[in-house]
């Protein structure tokens, strides 16, 4: 399994990811799957430039991301996958991407969203999607930084 | 996971407290009544306690141009000020420096706080100064405090979410000043109470209590705490190594270490840093180009036409409303001060962003509807690194200005720039400020602090006199660097917008800074490891009929400091293998205390007993390796 970390984080690449996870995992490639971001040329460029030198960043929409990830999952190179929402993961999973564990690392709060754990807030839709992901056989854990212990989703929300 | 940290901190404290109830003899100790004659004692007046408590509040507050996190928050600086308050700035700085080392790899990103370094610094130094502890003992006690302290931070993060909703309500009324008020006043009032009260009480009465607990502990456990004080710095240094101990920069760490040990600590850290700067220049110009070339070509995705459609340089519609330079500076200042004034789980810097936008909104929008919409637009979740990340604000302000002048920029456009840029800019900003510049300057300051007045480092804590210049130099340097980065990013973001972002990223300037800093950082860190990581084997071996200390006779002559260096590299390797820092901390603490048990003899007879007998009785010993046995050798 070379998809070292599949993470939901609405800030995609940021301090916790670059200074923390990337170093700890030794990932050599970052794949970002997000439909709006893939359409925004400027953001695509910024994201590819924002990762540390020597770590290539690829940005895809869900459909082509799934194809690419199936390919990468079979290769030995360690890869880190970043998405902004549970929905994207659901799309990837349904397209056959082998994802063992999804890490929910950061989703901001706002109107209509409730706090799940620390800096992670979800809308009712997103919460339902997270449980759907689990039903597809992918474990969902909450882990903000690498030094935290991963918390299973069921421990924070039973899904009923 | 604050529960985990708090629980562990609580346990450590509890164990210490409970062990005080046990009669010392149960633990098999020698008599501990023979008063520990550790230097002078200080009593803390009510005013001094209040000053210390207020200092701790300031360290977490926004009032110092937002620089408190980079200055007062750090134990090195806290130690200096506590020393100043209690009348011994040199000793305070020395203690603060020692307490700071385990936190060299300290990073707080995205509302995550691994430990409360400020509490460790402010309270730890107080306890140590009042009781006359040597710095090594302070390190261990302070680290426990740091774990407990996260409770204050996390309770504040939770409560600030409520205040964010109060700000929402003010925004609904298009009340600009109300939003600003909610970003600062309620959160800071809570923080003032939550941080002042416990620290005040502890500063006033806590030190004697800690001393009392330690007095009841068997001597060897207390000596174990001191041993841990020499071992725990390895964790802080290794945590920092995770960021810079990589690739072609690795040898510089060893150069720094060896320079220090080979000269028996005679070199000042400033000299090491100067050598590091020279090597960084050579490395950038002669070593790295060959390495960097292929990395640049691995840029995927069809390259965008650079800076074509930047809204910062639009085919300008008639500029009816212009922002003044004053508006920009005011907005920057508000952000710099108050970005973290109401840091909350739900929005992180969201209310801080809205607060910073208030001068802009005031200037650009007049109708109540426009103001309400603008306030609400900027009260949403936001988080970036608040110095380099300021390019986001500059860019957004430029967009707001165009919007107010009729350009077709909708909420989505502004939101997508904010939410799209805040992450990547934080990634770069945190790498620059938190994991590169701060630890390197701290390492430099700590190195200077732990030396003599002439700046010469002293290889162990024993007998060192602190140098307040270490704290002062660090404070000045970090403040200049941080403010310069933040102001430049803000203004460039406004004037050049997106093209600035892509240009600075493409220019490779940041990479050059990071790589150069990596070389310098490794040198300084290596030198620091040589100075502050202390491992002293106690057991003796018999060589040619004579009893010799294993380390003094065999290891150190071959490679001075080999054990300390080995410990640091081992710790780095374990962290790389994803052993948690907290697990390591616990393990090192337990091992240090066990290793202090007098297996091979009666051990220390009283606190001042540093005889050869006492020294060689355990596995590890507190100070320099036990020297030669006393004159009368057992030769027949």
Can you put this structure into words, describing what you see?
- The complex is a heterodimer of chains A (about 160) and B (about 625).
- Chain A is α/β, with parallel strands linked by helices and about 160 residues long.
- Chain A is about 40% helix and about 25% strand.
- Chain A has seven helices and nine strands, in the order βαβααβαβαβββαββα.
- Chain A has a seven-stranded mixed beta sheet with strand order 3-2-4-1-5-8-9, sandwiched between helices. A two-stranded antiparallel sheet of chain A has the order 6-7.
- In chain A, a hairpin with a 2-residue loop joins strand 6 and strand 7.
- Chain A is globular.
- Chain B is mainly α and about 625 residues long.
- A two-stranded antiparallel ribbon of chain B has the order 1-2.
- Classes of the chains: A alpha/beta (about 160), B mainly alpha (about 625).
How would you sum up this structure in a few lines?
The complex is a heterodimer of chains A (160) and B (636). With 160 residues, chain A is of the alpha/beta class. Chain A is built from seven helices and nine strands, in the order βαβααβαβαβββαββα.
Strands, helices and their partners?
The complex is a heterodimer of chains A (160) and B (636).
Chain A: E1 3-9, H1 15-25, E2 29-33, H2 35-39, H3 41-50, E3 57-60, H4 62-74, E4 79-83, H5 86-94, E5 101-106, E6 114-117, E7 120-122, H6 124-135, E8 139-142, E9 151-152, H7 153-156
Parallel strand pairs in A: 1-4, 1-5, 2-3, 2-4, 5-8
Antiparallel strand pairs in A: 6-7, 8-9
Chain B: H1 2-21, H2 46-60, H3 75-86, H4 89-100, H5 117-131, H6 135-172, H7 176-216, H8 219-231, H9 233-244, H10 250-262, H11 269-297, H12 325-338, H13 350-364, H14 368-378, H15 390-404, H16 411-449, H17 469-507, H18 509-532, E1 540-543, E2 546-549, H19 550-558, H20 562-576, H21 581-595, H22 612-615
């Amino acid at each position: 399994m070379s998809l070292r970390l599949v993470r939901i984080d609405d800030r995609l690449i940021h301090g916790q990811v670059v200074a923390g996870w990337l170093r700890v995992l030794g990932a050599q490639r970052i794949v970002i799957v997000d439909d709006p971001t893939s359409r925004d040329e400027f953001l695509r460029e910024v994201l590819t430039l924002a990762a540390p030198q020597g770590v290539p960043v690829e940005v895809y929409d869900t459909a082509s991301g799934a194809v690419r990830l199936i390919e990468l999952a079979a290769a030995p190179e360690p890869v880190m996958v970043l998405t902004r929402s549970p929905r994207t993961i659901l799309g990837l999973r349904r397209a056959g991407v082998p994802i063992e564990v999804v890490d929910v690392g950061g989703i901001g709060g706002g109107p209509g969203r409730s706090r799940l754990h620390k800096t992670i807030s979800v809308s009712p839709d997103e919460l339902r999607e997270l449980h759907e992901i689990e039903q597809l056989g992918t474990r969902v854990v909450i882990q903000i930084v690498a030094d935290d212990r991963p918390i299973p989703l069921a421990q924070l929300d039973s899904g009923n | 996971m604050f529960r985990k940290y708090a629980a562990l901190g609580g346990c450590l404290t509890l164990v210490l407290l409970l062990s005080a109830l046990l009669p010392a003899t149960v633990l098999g100790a020698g008599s501990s009544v023979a008063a520990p004659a550790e230097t002078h004692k200080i009593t803390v007046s009510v005013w001094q306690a209040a000053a210390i408590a207020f200092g701790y509040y300031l360290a977490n507050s926004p009032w110092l141009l937002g620089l408190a996190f980079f200055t007062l928050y750090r134990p090195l600086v806290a130690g200096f000020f506590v020393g100043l308050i209690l009348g011994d700035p040199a000793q305070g700085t020395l203690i603060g420096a020692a307490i700071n080392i385990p936190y060299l790899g300290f990073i707080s990103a995205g509302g995550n706080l691994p430990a409360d370094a400020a509490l460790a610094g402010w309270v730890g130094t107080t306890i140590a100064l009042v009781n006359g502890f040597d710095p090594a003992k302070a390190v261990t006690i302070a680290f426990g405090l740091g774990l407990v302290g996260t409770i204050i931070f996390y309770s504040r993060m939770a409560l600030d979410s409520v205040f964010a909703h109060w700000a929402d309500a003010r925004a609904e009324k298009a009340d600009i000043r109300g939003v600003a008020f909610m970003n600062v006043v309620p959160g800071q009032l809570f923080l003032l109470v939550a941080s002042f009260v416990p620290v005040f009480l502890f500063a006033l009465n806590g030190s004697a209590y800690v001393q009392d607990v330690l007095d009841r502990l068997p001597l060897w456990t207390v000596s174990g705490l001191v041993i841990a004080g020499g071992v725990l710095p390895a964790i802080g240094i290794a945590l920092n190594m995770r960021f810079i101990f990589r690739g072609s920069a690795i040898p510089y760490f060893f150069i720094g270490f060896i320079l220090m040990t080979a000269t028996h600590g005679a070199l000042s850290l400033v000299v090491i840093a100067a050598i590091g700067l020279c090597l960084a220049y050579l490395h950038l110009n002669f070593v790295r180009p060959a390495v960097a070339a292929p990395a640049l070509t691995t840029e995927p995705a069809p390259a965008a036409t650079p800076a074509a459609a930047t809204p910062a340089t639009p085919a300008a519609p008639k500029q009816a409303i212009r922002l003044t330079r004053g508006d920009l500076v005011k907005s920057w200042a508000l952000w710099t001060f108050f970005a973290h004034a109401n840091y909350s789980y739900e929005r992180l810097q969201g209310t801080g962003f809205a607060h910073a936008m208030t001068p802009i909104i005031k200037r650009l929008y007049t109708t109540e509807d426009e103001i309400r919409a603008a306030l609400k637009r900027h009260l949403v979740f936001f988080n970036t690194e608040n110095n380099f990340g300021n390019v986001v604000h500059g860019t957004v302000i430029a967009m707001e200005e165009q919007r107010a002048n009729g350009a077709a920029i909708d909420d989505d456009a502004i939101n997508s720039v904010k939410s799209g840029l805040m992450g990547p800019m934080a990634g770069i900003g945190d790498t620059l400020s938190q994991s590169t510049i701060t630890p390197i300057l701290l390492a430099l300051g700590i190195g200077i602090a732990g030396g003599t007045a002439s700046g010469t480092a002293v290889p162990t804590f024993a007998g060192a006199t602190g140098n307040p210049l270490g704290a002062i130099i660090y404070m000045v340097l970090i403040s200049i660097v941080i403010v310069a980065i933040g102001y430049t990013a803000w203004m460039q973001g406004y004037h050049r917008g997106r093209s600035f972002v892509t240009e600075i990223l493409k220019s490779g300037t940041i990479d050059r800074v990071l790589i150069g800093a990596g070389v310098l950082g490794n040198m300084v860190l290596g030198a620091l490891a040589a100075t502050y990581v202390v491992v002293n084997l106690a057991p003796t071996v018999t060589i040619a009929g004579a009893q010799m200390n294993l380390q003094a006779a065999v290891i150190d002559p071959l490679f001075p400091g080999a054990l300390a260096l080995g410990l640091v590299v081992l710790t780095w390797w374990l962290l790389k293998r994803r052993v948690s820092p907290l697990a390591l901390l616990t393990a090192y603490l337990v091992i240090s205390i066990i290793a202090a048990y007098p297996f091979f003899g009666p051990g220390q007879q009283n606190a001042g007993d540093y005889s050869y007998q006492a020294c060689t009785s355990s596995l590890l010993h507190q100070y320099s390796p036990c020297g030669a046995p006393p004159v009368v050798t057992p030769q027949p």
